[in-house]
């Protein structure tokens, strides 16, 4: 893989040297409300130059690590199946080269492509899912592949006991009934997160963050904003809790930069992305010591 022309700030390592590889998945063809998430990955990359590589929250700097940014995949907007296959293949390549994949969406359906590749390498993988929405519909207007169905499709792959959901505050009644039997759902907040991570132990984890877990007072640039969400600092603390575990893949998604003309949502997404990457790498280093 070649470097992207424009990288996320501080992520300029050569592919061969990288421990973590960023790639963008600019897809939003199944968005159910307001489109624009396809522009999220390029906006995060471009606007990252408005933040520093150094995190005062963690006393870590992106330039202290080897991170490669491979840019956005060119995805077929007219076919969810084709887009997911391309995402799965990119994730598979990164994994086969012994590196950790970090995907920037895009709508949340893109998680399914990456997760399929992860699960083939780590069949005992768990999912930690931060979101405003349950994403557990069996179909959305007849479509099985939708951002409203992504966690249900992941459940089809791994079954009960390995999907752990936090901050959920929206969904059909049947989604919450399904969750009560088949997933571990924590509504409205991160309560129970530390206990969940302790219970998972050293098992591999795929960590997916839908940025609409944030309250729209902090983050309005998303396709389906839901009142009652978390704050920036609460999300940072929760990320730090999860990344102490055995993270084998991760993604961040659902920024629609066109829906917040102030640019504040994109700036927040950039900062979360920096903290997310640093927290993964810092804790991987500590786990190796």
Gross geometry = globular
CATH architectural label: 3-Layer(aba) Sandwich
Structural class: alpha/beta
Average of pLDDT: 96
CATH level 1 class label: Alpha Beta
Can you give the helix content as a percent range?
A: 25-40%
User: Total strand count, please?
Assistant: 10
CATH superfamily: Ureohydrolase domain
- Cα separation of the termini: 30 Å
Number of helical segments? 8
- How many domains would you count in the coordinates? 1
Low-confidence stretches: none
Strand proportion:
15-25%
* CATH fold field value: Arginase, Chain A
Q: Strand order within the widest sheet?
A: 4-1-5-10-9-6-7-8
Q: Please summarize the sheet with the most strands.
A: 8 strands, parallel
- N-to-C series of helices and strands: EHEEEHEHEHEHEHEHEH
**Radius of gyration over all CA atoms, rounded:** 17 Å
Overview of the molecule:
This protein has 289 residues and is α/β, with parallel strands linked by helices. Helix content is 35%, strand content 18%. The chain contains eight helices and ten strands. The strands form two sheets. It has an eight-stranded parallel sheet with strand order 4-1-5-10-9-6-7-8, with helices on both faces. Helix 1 (40-47) crosses helix 8, helix 2 (80-96) packs parallel to helix 3 and helix 7 packs parallel to helix 8 (264-288). The chain is globular, with a radius of gyration of 17 Å. The two termini are 30 Å apart. The relative contact order is 0.18. The model has no long low-confidence stretch (mean pLDDT 96).
């Amino acid at each position: 893989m070649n470097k992207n022309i424009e990288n996320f700030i501080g992520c300029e390592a050569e592919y061969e040297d990288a421990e973590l590889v960023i790639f963008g998945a600019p897809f939003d063809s199944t968005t159910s409300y307001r489109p624009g998430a396809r522009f999220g990955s390029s906006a995060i990359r471009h606007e990252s130059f408005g933040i520093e590589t150094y995190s005062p929250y963690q006393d870590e700097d992106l330039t202290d690590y080897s991170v490669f940014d491979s840019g956005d995949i060119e995805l077929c907007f007219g076919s969810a199946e084709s887009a997911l296959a391309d995402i799965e293949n990119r994730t598979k390549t990164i994994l086969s080269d012994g590196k950790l994949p970090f995907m920037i969406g895009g709508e949340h359906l893109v998680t399914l492509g990456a997760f399929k590749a992860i699960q083939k390498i780590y069949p005992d993988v768990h999912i930690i899912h931060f979101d405003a929405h349950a994403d557990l519909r069996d179909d959305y207007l007849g479509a099985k592949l939708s951002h409203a169905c992504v966690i249900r499709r992941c459940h089809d792959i791994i079954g009960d006991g390995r999907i752990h959901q936090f901050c959920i505050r929206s969904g059909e009644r049947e989604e919450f009934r399904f969750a009560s039997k088949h997933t571990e759902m924590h509504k409205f907040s991160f309560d129970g997160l530390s206990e969940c991570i302790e219970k998972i132990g050293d098992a591999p984890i795929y960590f997916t963050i839908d940025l609409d877990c944030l309250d729209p007072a902090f983050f309005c640039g998303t396709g389906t904003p839901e009142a009652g969400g978390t704050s920036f600092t609460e999300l940072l603390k929760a990320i730090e809790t999860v990344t102490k575990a055995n993270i084998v893949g991760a993604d961040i998604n659902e920024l629609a930069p066109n829906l917040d003309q102030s640019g504040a949502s994109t700036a927040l997404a950039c900062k979360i992305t920096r903290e997310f990457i640093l927290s993964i790498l810092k804790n991987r280093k500590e786990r190796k010591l």
